[in-house]
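Handoff note, outgoing to incoming analyst
You'll be picking up this chain. Sequence as last confirmed:
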Amino acid sequence: MNFLNDIRDFFFPRICVCCGKLLSSQEEGLCVSCMASLPLTGLRNTPENEMERLFWGIYPIEKATSLYYYARGGSVSKILHGMKYYGRKRLCKQMGRVIATELLDTGFFDGIDYILPVPLHKSRLRIRGYNQSELLAMGISELTSIPVITDALERTHNNATQTHKSASGRWENAEGLFKITEKTFSLHGRHLLLVDDVLTTGATISSCIDALKTVDSVKISIITLAWTKS
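Most recent structure output, in case you need it:
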């Protein structure tokens, strides 16, 4: 097996998504140095933290957290770009496991019944071939054993990318973006964890909440890999 891995690495060298350095056999996706230098938010499972307060007045969410701060052109930006546009599916799951490892001892996942990744529109999913938030959720599930549900929430239209939009444009772009499906009967009274790759204004997550809050007695928490703190 090591021989086959050596051949694979010779023809398809594995490089760090952040710095471009060749990875060792023990490294996956990122080199140890880049992984250690990523900007942690330190939010972890802190009640009423800054990110959680973004959703006050929208819905009484249970808890919210994000692992890293996002900055354009920074290391976290390169990770997200690799996850979304360069087919780094293994990296998506790996970062989900990193999230879970960081938070397992904080009690953040206690009481959560299901993980719901923010869905892509069917046409965009067809083009990309995968949903990076779903793979992120699967990585979290691997360590927490919390089931991932992908068919309870549906994206109603293929809206334009949020990347270059202003804050107000992001909210307009995300209005009415999601709806619940007939599968939500099993979510009544459950505690759901919404998972996305990055939180900027909170518009996309808030649109998910707008759809899910119609489910009877539902509890909602939020987790993202990265957060663009204003």
